DNA sequence: GTCTATAGGCTGATAGAC
DNA sequence: GTCTATCAGCCTATAGAC
């Protein structure tokens, strides 16, 4: 074998990373296998030594991207629930996130295409997103509120990205941020 | 001329309607001109007597779909702000809406692709969505809250559609519905 | 205005050399 | 494991008959 052991695993991980970036930026249906492999410095023929099909790639991307997001949450330096949430809201609801989908969360970028994809992909998405929902439920102390947060976060970035004016983008994400922080504060007020 | 006057306008309106349905269901990039025209009972050659390009169609769809949504709001039978909003929340945050994107709002279905489209399309989207935002601001009495509602609504349908389990879809939209109704009630409590 | 036919390019996927 | 070469099929868009 001319390739060292572990090489394939390393290339696979690299492919998931670069493909994830391209897909979040340009969309799944709009992106060809050629473009994906070019972004990784390879040619399209090599794609099929890593993935059975383009749809198999989406399945893998759903897993890796949502796992990445959970790892990002784990890097949050704060312990107290309020500070932890505030930190995540500031990170998610930012102009940086609106304007750089390739570095951001897959939910606003790819959920609409996941919704149109095969059953196996939607099941994987559900499974991985449920893990994120559990983590958020622990922090918020309320499983319904956790869904509300997820939908508000993804929806805000989705809408803000489709707008052209940067000031309007800012209005949208700030309105959501202020509202979610308030919702959290008033919930705490109720609990105490 | 072998076609009656007004024929082209009628066909154009019909094309916008059928194309809107197909695009919301299957996505813009994933749908070919052939499929769009087939849905209208025509062949692809005729497409270009109505639209300059496929991207020109998206521009027109953004207008017609968002205008349709505003017309739907105008059909709301209630006068009082609270009843008006409740009616819209029940209509938007329904399993019917989750499971039939072709009959629903364009925001959760097509916003991600609008975000990747030409400047002219994003400008049109911004212009039309701003009209909707104004209407909602009048009903809610708060322009920030109006953006929050729009993002929560679109985000909830976006996420629910990508999930597989119907019970989980129900959980998501009910959590959002309950939360938004509560937010409105507590705002009214503050105002009084 | 709609049709068929067609152009040229890109798509997902496979076969075989290295 | 990656490459080049290749396939059939689909894509957007145009030309010309009716």
Description:
- Two copies of one chain form a homodimer.
- The first copy, chain A, is mainly α.
- Chain A has a single domain (53-191), classed as Tetracycline Repressor, domain 2 (Orthogonal Bundle).
- Chain A contains nine helices and no strands.
- In chain A, helix 4 (81-92) runs antiparallel to helix 9 and helix 8 (143-162) runs antiparallel to helix 9.
- The model of chain A has no long low-confidence stretch (mean pLDDT 96).
- Chain A binds a DNA duplex (18 and 18 nucleotides) through residues 1-3, 7-8, 11, 32-34, 42-50, 53-54.
Features:
homodimer, mainly alpha, Tetracycline Repressor, domain 2, 9 helices, 0% strand, globular, DNA-binding
Which helices and strands appear, and what pairs or packs with what?
The structure is a homodimer of 192-residue chains.
Chain A: H1 7-26, H2 33-39, H3 54-74, H4 81-92, H5 95-99, H6 106-115, H7 119-140, H8 143-162, H9 166-191
Helix pairs in contact in A: 1-2, 1-3, 3-7, 4-9, 7-8, 8-9
The structure holds a DNA duplex (18 and 18 nucleotides).
